[in-house]
Amino acid sequence: MVDAIEITTKNKVHILEKLLGHISKKGYGLVYTQFRVESENTAFLYVELENVVDIDCLISELRGFSGVMEVVKFFPTDEIWGKRIIIIGTGIQVSQVVLGAITEADRHNIRGERISIDTLPLTGEKNIIEALEAIGYLPRVSCIVLAESEIEDSIIGVIDEIKNNYNIKIVGLNGNDSLINHLDLVVTDPVQAGVMAVMAISETSNLDISRIKEVL
Q: TM spans, by residue (predicted)?
């Protein structure tokens, strides 16, 4: 079970270290954290934790720290926003993938799932590689769709890293024989690629893309 809290603090030196240090000493696992500075005097720390024995007790303890203004309990982001698909590319390809993905996600979300669709308008090998390398820093990402008509072999390394380290599925619209073996799925029709990306991460879909070996 994952618990989430948001801590409002004064923007003081070492406050982040003290709060996270206390949580760590309790033996609770950090699932996700986000720290943002609202003003010169105020900052917010959002924390998702696992293995918490008594979340209300922890909140009470954190409220006792110097500089802490408030601590409130939240629902984890996975429960609120659910899974996330990021579509990378430009032009008509992206718009068609988005059309398929949003249409299919709507069908699943009506039934109680929570799947969101993001787009990142990028082109060029270097820019796409940089974006893929940063994927691990983003929360809730379950699938990436590379909506480019041509994908270079140079991104094979970063694709393998994402799949191995973050368990994120990667769908492509195209690719040569060497690249296809590293993608989870290749769907040449962009609308269908969006549909398949949603089905691949849906908890209510029976689709197992690991069993699909050919280009669709």
A: none
How many domains does the chain fold into? 2
Evaluate whether residue 87 is within a structural domain.
Answer: yes
pLDDT in tens, the chain (216 residues): 889 999 999 988 888 889 999 999 988 989 889 898 888 889 999 999 998 989 999 999 999 999 999 999 988 988 888 999 999 988 888 999 999 999 999 999 998 999 999 999 887 888 888 888 888 888 889 999 998 766 666 788 888 888 888 889 999 887 666 677 788 888 889 999 999 999 999 888 777 666 565 555
Residues 6+ positions from 141 with CB-CB distance below 8 Å: 84, 85, 86, 135, 166, 168
User: Quick one: which H or E segment has residue 36?
Assistant: strand 29-37
Q: Cα(13)–Cα(18) distance, rounded to whole angstroms?
A: 10
- Both 88 and 102 in one domain: the answer is yes
Are 59 and 110 in a shared domain?
no
Residues 60 and 119 in one domain: no
Q: Would 215 be classed as within a structural domain?
A: no
Pairing of strands 141-147, 29-37: unpaired
